[in-house]
């Protein structure tokens, strides 16, 4: 039975027969549910059960067809031509990145706290079910692919922040119980709930992608009990002194672990000390004791790590950065999998004693560069089966592979091949920030790489935006056209603020060889980053006023509600709604590199623009990359006019950020070059007709 | 049975078994009920049933003794010495003036509106029951007499504002149903509910006074059906042209209707036209038709006025100001009672036709100045029985008589005598603003008059505050020591703002021959007046920001919640809490005129102060009447030192607005005059010890 219908049934059945005083931000109610009250601050008071039922009826069941669990690709594009790589639908998508736990967090009972169990015993952090409320907003903005940060069960051992990081996965094959919604009670299993969300997205033509994390795992992992040998171990008593060894002999800070450094690394006293700390896994050390421990665990449950500590004095060694002399502290909540059952082929020669216990070091981390002879096949099979589980159980459409760059090439191949056997049109995104590896990634079967947009786009004054916009077209696979991610500062909190954010968000919809990517919260000018992982300023944690309830909170670890009540919250969504039909009309033009035409300017400081050849016209997107000042901009049309016979003195403006609707356009100079006055950070889109005679 | 216990029972029984998301301002929870949540804005989330039960248990039942319904005076001071006037307890009281409907208004469900029936089917305007929550605040401030604006049933015909004015009474012997609280359901009648409030106040030693309105009545009054001859009538078709006649022949505007003007008045063409409009009452016109109408009314109910209009084409003549050529428009919702059944003795001689129908005119309004031969005894008896009804049913302790100055002296005597027969210690306040009439009012049996404090105190720069503070001691009865009333601008919205308000509120606690009077809202620096009746500025209606939910609203007519969340809301209550024990200790000293000693100053611009002789010491209260600037102040102690042998060079500061606690004081100049630095609007209280030797 359709999980959406089952959800509807559960909501009707579970609706309490007393009044609920329950608030949601206006942004959750874009489909026009008739609220009990609309508050001046932008909150709507609704009965959440009625609200969701209305959403299902009015929005989701309108174009509803019931299907078996399947990806949208399998439903719509079952036949993939053999010579084309499956999954390339991602190249025409607009991606919205979100964390289920965060994006629908709200203080629904307005008691001043985000409760996990509020006055109505409902959950105020995000859930799969509550995420349905965001779909009309995403649809309005033209989003057709939802990319979910990890949703698998994660460990709360040594958790970061108030809630812990979802990157510390402890069980790949279970969803995290925190994402369950008490509104549906026992009527829908957690699996059902996620399935209902995927089904809901699919009815709106939106694909759903997940983030899988095959390289690391929680130190408190469900896999330990059956596979202690897949992990690295140290004495529990050494945990306090355990650290990434700092190689004084290498003067550089934070260098990649290329082979030239390895002799030095293996001679370093600190490294040798570090390696000596590692111990053989408990099962290898004492089979009988391990069997006894397993029985105790089966009987009593509890923390497996505590049990191993009690019986063996051992614990899992935490992970750390794969870069030498990186100053990041160890990642206390996660560890690495042992990708090979022996030491690395190339570096084991530096080991005095070849029989040392398996150890974590820059080379063993970078198992793609430093393979061993004996792949950990059983582990690899497990990892390769994660995605098929999500495909078969929930019908997901694609995945990003976290730290794929540190996985053996053969394992990546296996993961991609296994998934594409289930769904030939399954999309893969490589966590590859280095655009030099675009071709290699595409060769591995990835449809696209993440790229470095988020670190290039905001740095307009250093020329990085122009470099990124104009050079990415030469890459062998697409990158994300994005100015922020869950790891970076927020655009609205950068120099240029809201103008910068709106400018980039609109412009990115038309970037050649770019896949538009919106980071949840970006659309409401959220200022607080979700994490301070990449490019943080010294004050990155303090982007909110000190009296904000989420001051100093990071969504990746803490309870965090996006600032949906920002008085400008409609600004970006409204602008995206206006460019959505334009992007849709020209999607095949924009996403085919051969239509791209570079443009140059005759007037204006640092404007930026793209042109595309369409059938009967040329589409031009121009942006004033200065988020502070308005300026005059004139496009140099001569090179384009040389190629096409274009209408001399009229065009049509399809969109201008500061105008209300399309209009004809007649401002051309004596050389037939169009000129505009452009507001700070303004984007304009115009089309010039080709003359029919030719 | 005690209504308080009955109330407690009803609250326990009626408490719903589901969660309530119900907000109250912090000011309602001064007794420390443990809230479900405390919000950053100062609201507390509580279950209102638990909250009230806790209030009853923790605050009200602590010193509880059960009594028959009775005034506090009857309970505590049964024996009033015959030569003393009863009711003089008011002279030692601190009065809090409030309107039940307004002072506990709150948007409890926070849906953005003050609902009469909110999400929980509870009332968000004020009720008798909710008023219990204010008692701890009043107690904290030292209030021991609550003066209630009218609570009788009023007419909604031609109502002013959203809710209508409680001054348009339609039935003296019923409470207004809007003050009933749905929390108690049917368990307590509306009478029970008011009785519970009076009982609650009495347990805290607070007296309760009401406002009675014997001169005017709603045009749609419950009395019409039985007593059409108590009212003035005109043709319904004349209502549109009906107006107070403007006497062009008198050049002055707004003059009192003294005898010297009356010949002119009665010659005026407009007046004659006005008099001719009046008609005999319908019953007098046609007894049979009236009998038929009565039957129809008994059967169908509905609007009595509409019925009279249908059958007789008559309607009640609206009231207007008793001043000649007052520019106030007619008071469309009320009319006057016919105090005499014949025309005025003194002015009827001007009537050409003595048989004209009874008419409203300046002389018939001012029936104390212009009596007839035939008092309307039946009406007088009815009016004199209002207070005994409230005494016997609810146990009230005193009353103000609205427009008493326009009542026949004999009627006032009758009203006061009848009430004092029930309770010899019943207090009466005259609505007498003219202090020249103080002696006359006292002669009538009033304990005090309102006086003109509210129009004198704020006008410091015109010398009126000093005049009021220093001259009122000579009056033959006490006046209210107050800077605002429900009819005037708010002190916090006057020039001088919060400093002015705090200064006067504290200073008034020690004014000679003054009874401290706090106008509900004054203690939280409310800026919006309740009515624009007296002394309004042109922008009086606009004291709130345009985005305030109560912008342009007047509590007397509209839904209005006081701004209890004002971030300074604790400022005045905290200061009053500090002076409360001082006032209490010296109450007999302060309220006995013979202890009062005027003081003068040697330094400082416009300081103000009072001194009182106590047994072993002299109490001095000094105020910097400048709410904008701090200044040095030196008291001229020489005249006082001549009378008393005071300690030369030390005193004790009991209270200083900007100091945390009492301290010794040694700042005296070479002539033994004390000097201080006083903040803007600061008040200091000090005592100087008399030397024991003498």
UniProtKB/TrEMBL annotation, chains A, B:
Which CDD domains does the entry mention? Answer: AmyAc_MTase_N
The answer to keyword Protease applying to this record is no
- Name any one Pfam family assigned in the record: Alpha-amylase
Question: Which Gene3D superfamilies does the annotation name?
Answer: Glycosidases
Q: Please list the residue ranges annotated as the Glycosyl hydrolase family 13 catalytic domain.
A: 111-558
Q: Does the keyword NAD apply?
A: no
Tell me which UniProt keywords the record has, alphabetically: Hydrolase
Gene Ontology MF terms in the entry: hydrolase activity
Protein name, UniProt field: Alpha-amylase family glycosyl hydrolase
């Amino acid at each position: 039975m359709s999980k959406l219908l089952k959800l509807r049934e559960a909501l009707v059945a579970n609706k309490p027969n007393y009044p609920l005083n329950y608030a949601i931000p206006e942004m959750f109610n874009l489909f026009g549910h008739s609220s009990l009250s609309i508050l001046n601050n932008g909150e709507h008071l609704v009965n959440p059960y009625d609200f969701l039922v209305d959403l299902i009826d009015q929005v989701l069941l309108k174009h509803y067809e019931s299907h078996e669990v399947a990806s949208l690709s399998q439903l719509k594009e079952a036949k993939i031509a053999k010579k084309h790589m499956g999954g390339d639908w991602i190249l025409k998508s607009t991606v919205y990145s979100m964390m289920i736990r965060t994006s629908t967090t709200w203080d629904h009972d307005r008691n001043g706290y985000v409760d996990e169990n509020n006055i109505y015993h409902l959950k105020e952090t995000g859930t799969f079910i509550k995420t349905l409320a965001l779909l009309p907003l995403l649809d309005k903005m033209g989003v057709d692919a939802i990319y979910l940060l990890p949703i698998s069960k994660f460990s709360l051992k040594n958790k970061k922040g108030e809630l812990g990081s979802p990157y510390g996965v402890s069980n790949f094959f279970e969803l995290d119980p925190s994402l369950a919604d008490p509104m549906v009670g026992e009527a829908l299993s957690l699996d059902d709930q996620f399935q209902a969300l995927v089904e809901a997205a699919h009815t709106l033509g939106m694909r759903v992608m997940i983030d899988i994390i095959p390289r690391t795992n929680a130190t408190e992992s469900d896999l330990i009990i059956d596979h202690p040998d897949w992990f690295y171990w140290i004495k529990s008593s050494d945990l306090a002194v355990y650290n990434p060894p700092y190689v004084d002999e290498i003067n550089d800070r934070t260098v990649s672990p290329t082979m030239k450094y390895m002799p030095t690394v293996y001679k370093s006293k600190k490294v040798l000390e570090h390696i000596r700390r590692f111990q053989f896994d408990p099962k290898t050390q004492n089979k009988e004791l391990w069997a006894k421990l397993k029985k105790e665990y089966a009987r009593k449950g509890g923390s497996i790590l505590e049990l191993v500590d009690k019986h063996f004095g051992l614990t899992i060694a935490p992970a750390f950065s794969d870069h030498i002399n990186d100053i990041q502290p160890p990642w206390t909540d996660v560890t690495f999998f042992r990708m090979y059952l022996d030491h690395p082929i190339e570096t084991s020669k530096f080991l005095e004693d070849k029989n040392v216990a398996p150890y974590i070091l820059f080379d063993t981390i970078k198992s793609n560069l430093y393979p061993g002879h004996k792949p950990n096949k059983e582990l690899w099979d497990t990892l390769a089966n994660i995605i098929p589980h999500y495909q078969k159980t929930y019908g997901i459409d694609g995945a990003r592979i976290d730290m794929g760059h540190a996985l053996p090439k053969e394992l990546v191949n296996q993961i991609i091949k296994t998934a594409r056997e289930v769904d030939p049109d399954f999309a893969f995104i490589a966590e590859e920030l280095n655009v030099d590896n675009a071709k290699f990634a595409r060769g591995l079967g990835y449809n696209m790489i993440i790229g470095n947009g988020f670190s290039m786009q905001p740095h307009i004054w250093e020329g990085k935006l122009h470099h990124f916009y104009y050079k990415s077209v030469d890459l062998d696979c697409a990158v994300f056209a994005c100015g922020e991610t869950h790891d970076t500062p927020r655009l609205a909190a950068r120099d240029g603020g809201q103008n910068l954010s709106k400018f980039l968000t609109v412009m990115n919809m038309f970037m050649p060889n770019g896949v538009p990517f919106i980071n949840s919260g970006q659309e409401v000018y959220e200022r607080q980053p979700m994490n301070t992982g990449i490019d943080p300023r010294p004050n990155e944690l303090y982007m909110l006023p000190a009296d904000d309830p989420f001051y100093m909170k990071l969504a990746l670890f803490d309870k965090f509600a996006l600032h949906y009540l920002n008085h400008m919250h409609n600004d970006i969504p409204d602008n995206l709604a206006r460019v959505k039909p334009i992007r849709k009309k020209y999607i095949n033009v924009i996403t085919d590199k051969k239509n791209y035409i570079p443009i140059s300017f005759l007037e204006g400081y640092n404007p930026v623009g793209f042109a595309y050849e369409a059938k009967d016209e040329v589409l031009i997107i121009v942006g004033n990359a200065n988020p502070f000042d308005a300026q005059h901009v004139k496009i140099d049309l001569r090179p384009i006019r040389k190629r096409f016979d274009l209408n001399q003195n009229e065009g049509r403006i399809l969109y201008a950020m500061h105008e209300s609707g399309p209009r004809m356009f007649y401002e051309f100079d004596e050389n037939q070059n169009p000129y505009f006055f452009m507001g700070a950070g303004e984007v304009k889109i115009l089309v010039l007709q080709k003359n029919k005679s030719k």
